[in-house]
Specification:
Chain lengths: ~250, ~250
């Protein structure tokens, strides 16, 4: 079984780096040992080290520099959103996660985000407002509009202050991006949908501003399910509305 | 820059497999083309193919068989929980996600799970009840007890029917497993904590059985924050209680 040994070797490398992270020997901004040093330290081949580094890269834990001089090598980064996006996108593609469950989870997280924002005494919605203004520009294509739309929802999640929720939301959105875009293409009248989405966004931020959590929750739910229903992304289903996790 | 080309090569392989999954040419249970065929098809080295396969394996998308005969090779699987666990564990280790945000997100998801279960007209809590009974056994160590505890929360999430939420919960729990275990070790009197946790579990399931969502939510929140506070995992903080996303 010649494949078995290398399979174990890359796990060794991954476990070593995870332990170094947990113990604080490695942290954000630090440079990993070189491929050669890791291979020598652990007694594995350089190809096994490279396999482990690819895993860490896709999971959003390291950035690998190009080149091979003293400036080359992998740096620990602390922007985990990319890893979550890659994971959820692949899982939806592989049918590991049904689209329906992804949509329900998005509703659940967005509900929590607007509730937290509305209930807070101080909040910074500058980023959200800037995006809402950008969405008023003439001549935006549906695709440009939807990119801003995704940014707006993420900006709200970011300002709610929970990085795990923000990363999960980014991941869920990425996972269903192609469906959202296809949905827009399927609409007979994109322009009136754009008008409606703009109004809904302003209504959501208004409810947050007024500290009205119940209204904010109701509006975000209608906003999301309304688009999904209009574009055929999900069936009209009362249970979707009544229970965040159906 | 000799490293740059291989870095692109493994991404090519990953994108090809993702496209095949999206287009339905590959699905759960299917066998991927062999390393040699993928390498030849895409004009990349076999080491690049292996790097992409490792990424897919850690993300919980494929299972790689050992051996090199006709039965060898990678099979598409649809159990994405492992990938989410690996991602969240690594992100917490790398301080990409603060522990506080992980705990808040867990509260949010558990709240949604018990709400959905309590509001449903029919539910199957067989698995949860079996675990609750197992937790009554004499002579369980703290570590065995906490393993059953984690299983119980996952069983509830599974029976709520949303696979994304269940995977996220499993991942969050794995990410903080070492802290939970350390917390138990720090307690002066584990036995009375075990008695309390058993009572709380029965109370939560009782509220779900009675369809009392408000009580179920209140009880799961107290149960989780109570343990975390008692073990020093999180500070006593009213905002934790008042706002799922602080």
């Amino acid at each position: 079984m010649p494949e078995q040994q290398p399979a174990r070797a890359w796990r060794l490398v991954l476990e070593r780096i995870e332990r170094d992270l947990l113990d604080g020997r490695l942290g954000p901004g630090d440079r990993l040992p070189s491929e050669r040093d890791l291979a020598a330290d652990l007694g594995v081949g350089r190809s096994s080290v490279r396999e482990a580094l690819r895993v860490l890269e896709v999971m959003g834990l390291i950035r690998t520099a190009t080149g091979s001089g003293p400036q080359s090598g992998a740096i620990v980064i602390s922007t985990p959103t990319g890893g979550m996006s890659a994971l959820l996108r692949l899982q939806v593609a592989a049918q590991g996660f049904p689209l329906h469950d992804v949509v329900q989870t998005r509703l659940l997280l967005e509900d929590a985000v607007v509730t937290a924002l509305a209930e807070r005494s101080a909040r910074d919605l500058t980023a959200a407002r800037r995006i809402i203004d950008a969405m008023e520009r003439d001549g935006l294509t549906a695709s440009e509009f939807l990119a801003l739309d995704a940014e707006l929802h993420l900006a709200l999640a970011d300002s709610s202050g929970n990085s795990v929720v923000a990363a999960m939301m980014a991941g869920l959105r990425t996972a269903i991006e192609s469906y959202v875009q296809e949905g827009a293409a399927a609409l007979a009248d994109w322009e009136s949908m754009a008008v409606r989405l703009r109004d809904e966004h302003r209504g959501i931020v208004e409810a947050i501003d007024e500290g009205d959590a119940a209204a904010a929750r109701e509006r975000i739910r209608r906003h999301i399910t309304g688009y999904y229903t209009a574009t055929g992304l999900t069936a009209t289903d009362d249970r979707v509305v009544a229970h965040p996790i159906a």
